[in-house]
Amino acid sequence: MRLFVHHATRYRWSETQRGIIQLLRVTPASFAGQAVVDWRIDVDRDARLRSGRDGFGNVTTMLYVDGPIDQIDVTVAGEVLTDERGGIVAGAPEPLPPGLFRRMTMLAGADQRIASFAQALRDEGGDALDWLHRLNARIFERIAFDTQATGVETDAGTAFARGHGVCQDHAHIFLAAARALGIPARYVSGHLFRRDGVVAQQAAHAWVEAHVEGLGWIGFDPANGICTDDAYVRVAVGLDYGDASPTTGRRRGGGDEALDVEVRVALSQVQAQVQVQA
Asked: What is the pTM of this model?
């Protein structure tokens, strides 16, 4: 598919800031099954942008804005060509060995409940790939999608106990369970084209990739109970949300911060015209 992504973030502060620094992980990379056709970052005021890559291989952009400032809009937009590859990820930047992604974190650590849940699924038999598919399906069945139940600071154990959460929580639970049994797994942030016709979304999407010997990295989306396909635009990876979040940063100034995010993922006009003509 040829997908168009528009990701707008507005920061507002109750007091004027003397300056802000933001680390943006909002630019996807090209690899087998994903080709970036066009991508740009726009800021609604004078700003300095510096591109680079982090230790996970993610494309990063440092954003520097001098004050006085009480509001700023950062808009990311572009087009990406995607192919269906059955969830298999190949050719992406891989600066780290898979074994590193067995490491537990505060957000994606397995407590006794998750460890027991994982072991019970393993005891049902099959190989690693069978077990990962079961894990993906059971988390989807067990954790109800609820935007009010958790926050970005919620860890896997808390979300699992509550039985409610958002895609970030589904991903952290999957990571914790996979790592509890020694399977490398990593957090992925990006965008999802919804085939139900919904274009506007409240946030970016999150899913996971697990490493299977002989196959490599495979994408699983426990929030939807499926493997990733050509509806997914992969942007950043890490051990958990903290390593792959779209934005993080610091500011010089007091007061409260309000953050508004709007995401739109749709077929590009080129693809839409082709489908209409067909």
From this structure: 0.94
